[in-house]
Amino acid sequence: MIPIPENEDELRLEIKRVIIAACEREMAPEAVDDQGVLVGANSVLDLDSLDALQAAVAVSKRFGIRIRDGNHARRVMASVNSLAEYIRQQTV
Description:
The protein has a single domain, classed as ACP-like (Non-ribosomal Peptide Synthetase Peptidyl Carrier Protein, Chain A, Orthogonal Bundle), CATH 1.10.1200. The chain is built from 4 helices and no strands. By secondary structure, it is an all-alpha fold. The model has no long low-confidence stretch (mean pLDDT 93). Helices cover 52% and strands 0% of the residues.
């Protein structure tokens, strides 16, 4: 497994890269706001529920974490910041 970046900015950038690749979006990771909504109409990535599932699987594989049911995924994947915080909690 690839090590998780220790620097918070690098971690958030890696999360964005993983999600963009998993959901096949054509945009720079820097265009995604760390606090912005990841899934739904207000998402700059315009992710729907299927995209969210693909992103959750990709993030789980990349970072070696487990995202449980839909309610848990909605909470954890609310934003890049919330996802980074969850990854840190799970890998300590």
